[in-house]
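Example 3.
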Amino acid sequence: MGKKSDHFDEMLFGDQGVRAPYSNYEKWFSGEDAARLSKKSKEAEAFFRRTGITFNVYGQAAAQERLIPFDLVPRILSSREWTRLSKGIEQRVLAINAFLHDIYHRQEILRAGRVPIELISQNEAFLPQMMGMTPPGGVYTHIVGTDIVRTGENDFFVLEDNARTPSGVSYMLENRETMLQMFPELFSQNKVQPVSNYPKNLRRSLAACAPKSCSGKPTVAILTPGIHNSAYFEHSFLADQMGVELVEGHDLRIVDGHIAMRTTQGYQVIDVLYRRVDDDYLDPLNFNPDSMLGVPGIMDVYRAGNITIANAPGTGIADDKAIYSYMPDIIEFYTGEKAILQNVETWRCSEEQSLQYVLDNLADLVVKEVHGSGGYGMLVGPAASKRELSDFAAKLKAAPSNYIAQPTLSLSTVPIFTKKELAPRHVDLRPFALMSPNGINITPGGLTRVALKEGSLVVNSSQGGGTKDTWVLED
Amino acid sequence: MLGKTAGGLYWMFRFLERSENTARLVEAGFRIALTRSTDSASEWKSVVTTAGVLEGYTQKYEDYTATNVVDYLLRDADNPSSVTSVTNNARTNARMVRNTLTTEVWEAVNDNWMTLKSALKKPIKETELPALLGTIRQQSALVRGALYGTMLRNDIFDFAQIGTALERADNTSRILDVKYYTLLPSASSVGSSLDNVQWETVLRSVSAHRSFRWLNADEITSSTIADFLILDARFPRSLVFCYKQLVSNLDFLAKDYGARTTSNDLAETLLAKLKSHDINDIFEEGLHQFINDYIQQNNAIGLQIEQDYRFNG
């Protein structure tokens, strides 16, 4: 182990030795030769390049396709830790669905005064077109990727509920494949719960949400913005793994009131569309008229009950960062239970007192745009220069309601393998939950993202983060 | 299968075939330039013409030197048919249809792209050219091998084969179109042997100099060469061979889909026409006219396939 750290390290307790879930792994690691591991690390990179597991970075023409660095030290959770996490996620996903149904129907939670009405009525993520309509099977969020961080042995926090089109699941699957190929012996020494059922479960889960109009075996397809999208690899990967077509807007049209795709033998009806296109671009007739990515009129087909769109349009209202701060109330309102997973304390800059607090303590806080994602437009106070702080303060004052602030959490670390040794780096976790009328299915583990720079808290792949295989051990 | 996907497969394999064909043309040109220094400019010009990029080339260069032609055909991103461009396009199409390809085929195409991108990064030195051309041919052989060895024989395979057959037929016919005059038995040279270097270039540009000699040891005449390139069903780049493949893959599609299309009929008609001729008929009819008609019909069949299988809506 390199430097001593003040953070909770999930593998090593300072001087007290190795935490239980890592004990087998550590034994194996200490018997390994650093040179061999370095070589393995290079092999993994070559493997990712050859198989084309890449992502595109917007605004960087020269580096159009990049690899997400993969670290070969797994992140390991015990079965007990996972049980609690998955219960907490399930509770949140159920609450989010109930919230969405309520917001688009009777709006009881607003009447009860638990969530301010302006937060909904003035929110761009709220879609009036969804009012009064119930998606097939009553499911709004077919796929959720909850971002979770940890600060101590039992301290897990939800950072974001990604309820729109969470990405990253292909890395979860490919990271495991890579580990199985590189270190098969580890999987005979450790009982790791498998993740490879995800594509099969996803297909089943989507098919179970088919609209009533579908009488036979449902036809599922994935809608991608196209090969220039940053997550295109994932879209084609999932289509391949699920055995479904990967369509773009221009492959689709309305035929007899249904969405159909142009095949070599004519138009074929689609029952369930897993869209990886944002609400705004989904339907130029109903939303952004300039969009070339969507299908004109799909919202009308949807409202007529002739197609399932996953996730449902308008789910963004539930993972909005301003709504986030109300999640503990939302969970209690709909489930009657306290939230199992904690929320991070959040200051809504739209509130005068909070804004003052945030401005006074900017250097200690993380400030995020309410509608931002991918780590863009975000300020990490402790890592910012004086100049950056004062620039950001000006932005905050100009449009306070665009921002929320949170304390800088002391995120847990998991070691990465540098060229010769282990060194602690901050991590987060994105498990993937699937929802259908048959229930919620959460793949054990998820995607662990790791900030590769020493001391850095930003794990986003677009900002230089890497990934790790995530293990959940069997009992 | 999506119409777009069928189109992606078809073009992916057309581009891969084009990359290989361009490498062969350059190889033949390079060889003739080495063996016959006096008239290499006109040889390079006919290489550029055969590659179908004369217009773009003349906008950029005034003369036909080895350095310029090799660079334009292999590396130039402004040339839509350069090896660099078609390799990129092949891979872009492969990404588009990736969920129809086996891992082996995808990896071979991706590897082809990575290898050639790095090999074609800097201008090519004369000393490196033979090895580079070898690499280009070898890379496409790897893709083909992965295709034959791992893909299901279904519509996906058919569209890949159709793209290859059409591109190859187009290539062989364009070589004949540019070089037909060297095969014309003019009055003065009746009975005299052909211009050795010329016919050897033609054969080399379809990798057939060896097979031709093997089949026609002592009989190197205009009619044996034309017969070989147009009508010999044993030679995998002859027009008849390409059309037999095309007709058979279109037939598989028709059976698979339970419906025949206009392209089935057009391709069969063209194949029947090829087969009904012997080489003397073709010379009598006029070699150039014959080739010209063929090129036009081959193009028309390509467009018909795009329409019949809804590549573009």
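The CA atoms of residues 137 and 377 of chain A lie 37 Å apart. Chain A touches chain B at residues 49-52, 227, 232, 236-237, 239-240, 245-248, 250-251, 261-266 (CB under 8 Å).
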